[in-house]
């Protein structure tokens, strides 16, 4: 089983944003040492508790401080940007860090309506135009516009020896079909979806059209997981993330991820308890043996080529330890 890391660069209650970003770099280094295949960092805008608004900036820093692990965006939110600029940025990264760069593409706003308006005009229209934006981006990455196209003489320079690998991220049949039609590998966000992921991934495989003759379909499933030395420790660690998620839904949680003690002291209403239980069911939480069993079951159910793990804890040391315990048990 191949394992990878999705990092949202969370800010704990005692941290600054800079602290969180430094911890992200250290997580990438740890992931490389533990044998993880790739490290992706997400894009969020003006969301309290999440530090990374520009994955491309962090990737240049992380690439310079790692040696082998593949690094990428999870995701660049393409409706906010022109495909040409995105291609330039990731071609630049692929030139600096040869054969290590992934470019994950998403279509979520990544923040509030006000943030969306500040970032880009006509966002909803750009979402509807995502198939055309993806197609344009792929042509820039492949440097292969038809001779009669308006951009046929435009290159997203520098042109790297190994192009960045484009992935489409999503949680719906629509995103699966778009990935399949464009011959792109697909990453399904199990950790943020209530949809029938296995059916969605089967749709992707059934409709996959390779961009090049030797290409085959490829699937990552992303899951929220927390591993502890014991089941009880893992449940305690997870409570910080779960309570923080509930706080955010109420417009609270502005101070970042609460400590375990703060999470324990939080009084749940009946409605919040239901939400807590539902979120808990969508996570993998346990000791190393239990986590491995659940990851294997998830991989079998989805027929996934790779599992990507998102872990949020109050203590960065606990987060790295969780990834270490999983790697020792699985890899």
Tally of separate helices:
13
Q: Tally of extended strands?
A: 9
**CATH topology tier name:** TIM Barrel
- Sheet-strand content, in percent, reads 15-25%
Number of domain modules: 1
Strand order of the largest sheet: 1-2-3-4-5-6-7-9
**CATH level 1 class label:** Alpha Beta
CA-CA gap between termini: 7 Å
Low-confidence stretches: none
Task: Write up what this structure looks like.
The protein has 331 residues and is α/β, with parallel strands linked by helices. It is 47% helix and 16% strand. The protein contains 13 helices and nine strands. Strands 1-2-3-4-5-6-7-9 form an eight-stranded parallel beta barrel, surrounded by eight helices. To bacterial alkanal monooxygenase alpha and beta chains. This is LLM class flavin-dependent oxidoreductase. Keywords: Oxidoreductase. Pfam families: Bac_luciferase.
């Amino acid at each position: 089983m191949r394992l990878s890391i999705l990092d949202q660069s969370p800010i704990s209650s005692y941290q600054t944003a800079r602290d969180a970003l430094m911890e992200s770099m250290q997580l990438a280094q740890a992931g490389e040492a533990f044998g993880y295949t790739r490290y992706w960092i997400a894009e969020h805008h003006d969301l309290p508790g999440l530090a990374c608004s520009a994955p491309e900036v962090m990737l240049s820093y992380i690439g310079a401080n790692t040696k082998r692990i593949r690094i990428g965006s999870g995701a660049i939110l393409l409706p906010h940007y022109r495909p040409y600029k995105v291609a330039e940025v990731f071609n630049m990264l692929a030139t600096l860090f040869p054969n290590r760069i992934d470019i994950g593409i998403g279509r979520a706003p990544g923040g509030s309506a006000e943030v969306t308006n500040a970032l880009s005009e006509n966002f909803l229209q750009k979402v509807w135009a995502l198939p055309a934006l993806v197609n344009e981006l792929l042509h820039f990455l492949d440097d292969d516009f038809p001779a009669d196209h308006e951009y046929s003489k435009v290159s997203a320079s520098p042109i790297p020896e190994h192009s960045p690998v484009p992935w489409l991220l999503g949680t719906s049949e629509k995103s699966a079909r778009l990935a399949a039609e464009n011959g792109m590998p697909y990453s399904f966000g199990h950790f943020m979806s209530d949809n029938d992921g296995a059916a969605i991934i089967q749709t992707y495989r059934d409709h996959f059209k390779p961009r090049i003759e030797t290409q085959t379909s490829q699937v990552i499933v992303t899951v929220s997981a927390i591993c502890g030395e014991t089941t009880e420790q893992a449940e305690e660690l997870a409570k910080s993330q779960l309570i923080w998620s509930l706080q955010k839904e109420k417009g609270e949680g502005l101070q970042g991820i609460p400590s375990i003690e703060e999470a324990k002291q939080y009084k749940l209403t009946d409605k919040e308890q239901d939400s807590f239980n539902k979120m808990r069911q969508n996570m993998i939480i346990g000791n190393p043996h239990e986590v491995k069993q659940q990851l294997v079951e998830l991989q079998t159910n989805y027929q996934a080529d790779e599992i990507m793990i998102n872990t949020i804890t109050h203590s960065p040391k606990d987060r790295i330890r969780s990834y270490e315990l999983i790697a020792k048990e699985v890899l």
